[in-house]
Amino acid sequence: MRRWSIATRLFVSQLVVILVLTGAAVLASWADARADVERDAAARSLAVAETIAHDPFVVEGVTSPDPTATLQPYAVEIMDSAAIDFITIMSPERIRYTHRDPDEIGKQFLGTIDRALAGESFTETYTGTLGPSVRAVVPIEDAGGSVVALVSAGITVSNTQVALGGRIATVLLAAAAALALGALASWGVSRYLRRVTWGRGAEEMSRMFAYYEGVLHSISEGLVLQDASRRVVLYNDRAAELLGLPRSSGGAPVAVSQLPLDAPVAAALDSAEVAVDEIVVTDTHVLVLDRDRVVSSPESGRARGRAHLIGTVTTLRDHTRLQELAGELDTMTTLSDALRSQTHEFANRLHTITALIELGRAREAAELASSQLAVSQQLADRILTALDEPVLLALLLGKAAQAAERGVALELAIPDRVDVGGLPPHELITIVGNLVDNALDAVAGTEHPVVEVAIGADARGAFRIEVSDSGPGPGERLADSVFGLGVTTKTGEGHGIGLALVRQAAKRLGGDVTVEGSRFTVTVPVPAEAGR
Questions:
Q1: Is this model's pTM higher than 0.70 or not?
Q2: How big is the CA angle at 384 (ends 381 and 389), to the nearest 5 degrees?
Q3: Residue 114, SS3?
Q4: Strand partners, 279
């Protein structure tokens, strides 16, 4: 059995509330109207009774030998002219002199008279011979102030209800109008809710929200939700990490300009255009951005109408490490090629040495075998005594072999001891590998190509890497933008990434990179753990 939707529940609850309030209003209005009618009846009865009690004709009539003969025609005339149901003039002993029904004359009056005998006028509701009535009882006094008779004037309850009926009809009509307007308003609100919730029930909406919340914070990609005005509505934890934002707790939408975002990211998020695999480079990451529009479907759920733009969903994938791994793979591939070519060269040398030995030229064979070995061993010993990071050791030895293969003189300037134990090895590979590769590419094909690599510490104890070459450098035109993605002096595709990765790695380590001519300098602080 399908549960009621939120719209249906709201409509029914509002309708019940309106019915209850309308019923309560009718009862209150009826009670108030009844009280007003009874007050009017009591006031009119009291006024008539007091007028009769102060009439000298009545005072003389009650003291005459036959009060009924004198006063009954008088009372009937007043009852008809004043629209009073009964006027009873009686003796202090309750004996009626007048009555609406002549058969009741001479009988005792039914009601309270004690207060009137004491000289006080009052009103009450009492059930007498004509049924329940609202009556007034007033004493009739002589010239000396003595109570010589009593007069009671009243209106039966049935007549007050006739007067009340007209007022209740008006109240009921007003209540029906209020009920109709309230039901119409509730129907409009429920229709709106049915459209925006697509007819889903509260439990279903709660379950969907729990699922969406779980998905939002569990996926490995960054997710940014924006409304039709391109304000950021929500982003998940991964997006906060990639963009350097505080964790999102929902709340009111925020304009992109109010968030602490890098300029490329802010420009990308400030656009509502669909994007597929758009590369965005920040100070610390290389992001691949995809954006799609979210529109309301006119056929979704029970909603019907024209589709309109709700907002956009932007996903962010971190390709920083992928780009770094690609660069490391290129380095390893180059190193492998260099080692392969050196294998052929060493094989040729070995054949030559073997032939010299067979010819009895042992001295020349020993000199040929040790000449190149001494140079390589001196370089290896120099690096091994200075650096304690095996990854950086292997990288520099590989780059030395690569430079030798390409005919480039690689000069290393390393102090007796460099402590880099606290710096992440993969970040060092990214920085040193890309800077040396760029330098090797820059001097390729030039006369007397030289690449210099200096590793050490600056005056503040920060770790510093300087890579320069004999080439012209990027030039003043590109000096400020050379670290941007896609900016390069090389021709062809696939370039303009290495220096962007170098800057990101330096930023992640809390340092910076500068360029002066063909010299690139990276300075990063050494973690305190390394010094200890």
A1: no
A2: 165
A3: helix
A4: 288
